[in-house]
Amino acid sequence: AQKVTQAQTEISVVEKEDVTLDCVYETRDTTYYLFWYKQPPSGELVFLIRRNSFDEQNEISGRYSWNFQKSTSSFNFTITASQVVDSAVYFCALSKHNTDKLIFGTGTRLQVFP
Amino acid sequence: DTGVSQDPRHKITKRGQNVTFRCDPISEHNRLYWYRQTLGQGPEFLTYFQNEAQLEKSRLLSDRFSAERPKGSFSTLEIQRTEQGDSAMYLCASSLTPRLAGNTDTQYFGPGTRLTVL
To 5 degrees, how large is the angle CA A47–CA A53–CA A59? Predict the structure, then answer.
């Protein structure tokens, strides 16, 4: 069975702090895809990143970075120098090869205080 | 380039009534998905279409739920005889068909329709 676990229910930080959101996944497939989405208070899920299982290179996009480690089945997300606008619920999701169904974790609510 | 749109944004209904939601995908996207999200949970897959064909349905989609995409463009999700347990956010997403068979393309989500069943 496939599963995504986001153990951190809620994280609170002060602006400019770095914060890491954890994601651990379970799958028996060798080919799969991992995603992160952001859900601000407005409710719309905003796509952040997509990685396939053969690409373990870490990625950096501005203040965002992602660390994919197949050995520990983790796909963690770090926000550097957090800002109030980063406050949202962040979801990690998994999709296996040959299906478009996304399996989401329960999300991590990030609150960034000024 | 407009994103995925959903209508209505909010719906309040009484138990036993039927409701219908509409989703308009990104114009060039031929795949369309429905998810349901309850409070404090991640979205759960309900069903998806490629053009007008419904390719997969979750066990969550009981016989009171029906989804259509008659012309391969917009889609509707109807819930008959609503129950209080149907209260949730209903999310629609769309994507392109991957160029390589078996690959997964990125799904882009709409703002959702929040359903409250009294």
Answer: 55
- B80 min Cα distance to partner chain A (Å): 24
B57 touches chain A (CB under 8 A): no
Contact yes or no for A21/A108 (Cβ under 8 A): yes
Closest chain B residue to A104 measured between Cα atoms? B42
- The per-residue pLDDT for range B59-114, each reduced to its tens digit, is 888 899 999 999 889 999 999 999 999 999 999 999 987 666 556 688 999 999 99
Give the type of residue at A9: T
Mapped onto helix, strand or coil, the DSSP state of residue A105 is: coil
> What pLDDT band is residue A42 in, cutting at 50, 70 and 90?
confident
The string over A32-49, giving b where at least 16 C-beta atoms fall within 10 Å of a residue's C-beta and e elsewhere, is bbbbbbbbeeebbbeebb
Is A37 in contact with B114 (Cβ distance < 8 A)? no
